[in-house]
């Protein structure tokens, strides 16, 4: 906040306008700490860049420059209007305009279409404060037009219901139902980012009920999967858990949601955690093979109350590299060349050590190996 005000002061000293806008104003009025503070200004991107020492061109084509100041990043965006939404997605071109009001008019909902001066005066041309008071999400202007311009806004409305515990205004909701199919034009990355936010918000169930009611589920990739019982769901703070919960409830494999283009890391966490929920019992070998993250995620839906961190720490070894003997040792002790037998014996040794049946000590491993190997050979 203070940093944003400093940025505004600098803009004003240079003869430009500058306001805090969008979600930050909404959150401040709700008494919440805003996640990120955006500034709208009459200065053009090049003019913004000339005024601050450290800037990053995060979205310069859209008029946005990230100003780095006091260890914070403030996005400064030139007042803009958007024209020519020919395909229900982003605008074909961005026009810079000279007025704050035009900038606010292109925003999605009245509660997100307010600005604040450096003296904390609120500029609210569309009744955002009243809607905030009544806990209503309402499109700015004509909802049909707004959803035709950018269909993602329909999903954003639904995301905000759970995030803020608000309801969607009737006219806006009816318009969403009528335009639901337009969601098909939206890039999956944008869809996923909103769905991710639904999964981490405090009332996922509320957003999910709206998702169903709005018929967006009919047109979203894998949309029918979202219809599960969300009442027992409690976010663990990661969106990955939401995807995992949904697949687990539906008894489905990861591939059912692969359209959403997960990172390899996220995909692996989900797949491994699903695997864990299918195991009948968890023992040392399980704790050894799965990461704490995977175990914790699976435990959230399997009522496993064990202290997983402790269970993992108590293992004699954490990975193969902790074993006091290696493949070369086994080759030397057996006198045999490398071959498929080696992998088999390394795993035997690993398993016994993990289960605590063989001590992780080179001499003891040697004794065990010499005995057993020759008996089997
Ligand atoms: P949060 O940061 O809590 O997720 P936010 O409202 O700040 O919520 P952002 O995605 O950060 O959401 O967007 C910042 C602001 O930009 C919004 O408050 C809104 O004014 C505007 N905005 C964002 N996306 C759109 C959109 N698709 N159409 C119109 N305006 C938008
Ligand atoms: Mg934001």
From TrEMBL:
Domain named tRNA nucleotidyltransferase/poly(A) polymerase RNA and SrmB- binding: residues: 165-221
Cofactor needs: Mg(2+)
Keyword tRNA processing: yes
Entries under InterPro entries matching the protein: Bact_CCA-adding_enz_type3_sf, CCA-adding_enz_C, NT_sf, PolA_pol_head_dom, PolyA_RNA-bd
Keyword ATP-binding assigned: no
Keyword annotations: Magnesium, Metal-binding, Nucleotide-binding, Nucleotidyltransferase, RNA-binding, Transferase, tRNA processing
Annotated ranges, domain Poly A polymerase head: 19-138
Family the entry assigns: Belongs to the tRNA nucleotidyltransferase/poly(A) polymerase family.
Stated name of the protein: CCA-adding protein
Protein species of origin: Planococcus kocurii
High-level lineage: Bacteria, Bacillati, Bacillota, Bacilli, Bacillales
